[in-house]
Specification:
50% helix, 19 helices
Length: 431
């Protein structure tokens, strides 16, 4: 079925009546989030009061249990602004005032409540203002394509918004959006994303990349891998849960390892991607990443790298001659031009790997103490007491604890072992 379109107009009164009857859906699955500023919204109300012509509002007409419902394809920001100004429904708390001329009293700031109270003429003119509409029907895939096409002007759709529109039913994309919501405060605190970027789904785009990179087992080319994978829904439910769990473990580790990331270049999305994937890989390679002293050293290296690259870049901007200064000059080449290609990401990872890997130790492949080691430790300990709570232990209830935790690089050897009761061992954890 091809698209069918009907051209017409509706007054603001008719639009608000449809909204009250729940026949206007401002947020269909393919729609983007609100991106207008307060200035944009005030200008629209001023245009309506001044009777300026406005662009068409595109509505997708469909039938739901015998009732006609209109999904907003284009014009969401305009309709939201009108409903906010008039204080309808969930927009009641978002009312705002506008600087307009009311009954020849000069320009003043007026709310909708003021207009209703002091000027029936302006109120009537506003409510009877006619909005040009295009009502379309057809296959949903065609509607989504129309949405992407007509949003190529004004505040253009970001790549993340286009991806959301085309694949909004994808479980993969929904999982990425859920993870963004969970980590929103971290992204904002470290200036990895601004509120505006999150609103325009840049966070979803970044997290989708990271999830797909984990799924693919390493770095990917952003331009070729993501859409194809999400569009084909190639990641099943069990796999998606597994990679989401790995993602969460990695980002939580980065939060602990480098809590002041905003002080470095690695708050930039391209460079945050590289650091995230390196930490993920180091986890897989069984490096001990939870030792505070080593993490402090590593963060200092990241800070120095950031400063060196920034200084070198500043020299180039001032057209000053600068000698190549590895690793700063090598790294600078990876953050210019096409920063998201696979080749560039590999070069950037190579610099970071050479910088950070020497700082960390590999975990002992042997996690638990053997039966022979347990017997030696028990039989050579004269006290037979928990090292922490001093409770007397028996053969049936003792545990052997790593003095230096295994997760921090502690070896599973007799000189790194001590007797401990189960509860104390459990509470100690990786400390």
């Amino acid at each position: 079925m091809s698209l069918q379109a009907g051209y017409g107009e509706r007054t603001i009164n008719e639009i608000t009546l449809l909204f009250r009857n729940k026949q206007i859906n401002l947020n269909p699955g393919f729609q983007r989030k609100s991106v207008w500023s307060q200035i944009d919204r005030r200008r629209l109300i001023q245009s309506i009061v001044s009777e300026y012509p406005l662009p068409n509002i595109f509505l997708y007409r469909r039938n739901v249990k015998g009732k006609t419902v209109y999904d907003v394809i284009d014009g969401k920001q305009r309709l939201e602004t009108i409903l906010m100004f008039m204080g309808f429904g969930q927009f009641k708390r978002e009312q705002f005032d506008v600087r307009i001329e009311l009954d020849n009293d000069g320009l003043c700031w007026w709310t909708w409540k003021d207009i209703k109270k002091y000027s029936d003429e302006v109120r009537h003119k506003f409510e009877c203002s006619r909005l040009q509409t295009v009502e379309v029907s057809g296959e949903l895939s065609e509607i989504v394509d129309l949405f992407v096409r007509i949003n190529s002007t004004g505040k253009r759709l970001t790549s993340g918004e286009k991806r959301h529109a085309r694949f909004y039913e994808s479980r993969f994309l929904q999982e990425a959006e859920k993870l963004v919501r969970r980590n929103q405060s971290y992204l904002l605190k470290n200036s990895i994303m601004s509120q505006a970027q999150l609103g325009r789904m840049k966070g979803t785009e970044l997290f989708s990349e990271l999830l797909m990179s984990i799924h693919m087992g390493g770095l990917i080319n952003k331009k070729t891998a993501l859409d194809r994978a999400i569009g084909n829904d190639s990641v099943n439910g069990n796999t998606l849960r597994h990679i989401s769990k790995e993602f969460t473990a990695t980002i939580n580790l980065i939060k602990k390892m480098y809590p002041e990331l905003k002080q470095t270049r690695f708050r930039n999305t391209a460079e945050f991607y590289s650091l995230f994937m390196l930490v993920w890989q180091m986890q897989h390679d069984k490096l001990a990443l939870r030792e505070p002293k080593r993490n402090t050293m590593a963060f200092e290296m990241l800070r120095r790298l950031s400063t060196g690259v920034d200084q070198l870049r500043e020299q180039y901007r001032r057209a000053k001659a600068a000698k190549p200064r590895p690793p700063y000059s090598d790294y600078l080449l990876t953050v210019q031009g096409d920063t998201d290609s696979l080749a560039t990401r590999q070069r950037r990872e190579k610099v970071l790997r050479a910088l950070l890997l020497p700082i960390y130790e590999y975990k002992d492949n042997k996690r638990g103490f053997s039966a022979e080691q347990r017997r030696i430790i028990w039989n050579t300990d004269s006290q037979k007491k928990c090292i922490r709570c001093k409770r007397n232990l028996t053969w049936d209830d003792f545990t052997v604890d790593h003095i230096k935790a295994h997760v921090r690089g502690g070896k599973t050897r007799l000189d790194n072992a001590q007797l401990m009761c189960r509860s104390c061992n459990s509470r100690k954890g990786g400390r």
